[in-house]
Design a protein that fits this description.
This protein is mainly α. The chain has one domain: ACP-like (Non-ribosomal Peptide Synthetase Peptidyl Carrier Protein, Chain A), CATH 1.10.1200. Helices cover 56% and strands 0% of the residues. Helix 1 packs across helix 4. The radius of gyration is 13 Å and the shape is globular. The model has no long low-confidence stretch (mean pLDDT 94).
Length: 101
């Protein structure tokens, strides 16, 4: 678990935008917080798994994919902004994310 600083917020946003820019062959400045991952970028669920692994390694997170899946069912992620928000919650709360309701 980590305290979310402005640096972490900026890093997460940069990683997410760069990832989708590269994977979806879109210029980074075309991606906004409102960009729809599936409709606008043709993203898929495998991209989420790749991103989760990137963040698990970068922040040494202890969280199971099953926990993230349970959280995602109640809090679906459709936009880049929602994905960034969820990732920040994962970094901050790890396995306890499931208890945030």
């Amino acid at each position: 678990m980590a305290e979310i600083t402005d640096k972490i917020k900026d890093d997460v946003k940069e990683i997410v935008v760069d990832f989708f820019s590269e994977e979806c062959e879109v210029e980074p400045d075309e991606i906004t917080m409102e960009t729809h991952i599936f409709d606008d970028l043709d993203g898929d669920s495998l991209m989420f798994l790749e991103l989760i692994e990137i963040f698990k390694k970068k922040y040494n997170l202890n969280i199971d994919l099953k926990t993230i899946g349970k959280y995602s069912v109640k809090h679906p992620v459709r936009t880049i902004g929602e994905l960034i928000d969820m990732q920040l919650l994962i970094i901050e709360h790890e396995e306890n994310i499931i208890n945030l309701d």
